[in-house]
Amino acid sequence: MNFPAHFALSSLLGIAIWLIFLLVGLLLAYLVIRFGVFHGLRAHTRWIDEGKDRRRDTHEPYNS
Which of 7, 11, 46, 55 is the most exposed place for a label (fewest CB within 10 A)? Predict the structure, then answer.
């Protein structure tokens, strides 16, 4: 291999590695955000349900 071909191959390899790390980072960020939103909504639903008046009919629990 001459120098320019070797340089082109190494730069393509560097770009491919950078893209792989970028995709893995974006996937991890998506999973962390999804995990946080899911557990936040679940906790909020439990908090709302614990504040309901248990003596009333619970068919429409979020009406004021």
Answer: 55
> Is 36 among the domain residues?
yes
Rg of the chain in Å (alpha carbons): 26
For the chain, what percentages of helix, strand and coil (3-state, to nearest 5) are there? 75, 0, 25
CA distance 61 to 64: 8
Structure tokens at 30: 């998506």
Q: Label residue 31 by pLDDT band (50, 70, 90).
A: very high
Look at the pTM and tell me if it is higher than 0.85: no
- Give me the number of domains the chain comprises: 1
Task: State yes or no: pLDDT of 29 exceeds 80.
Answer: yes
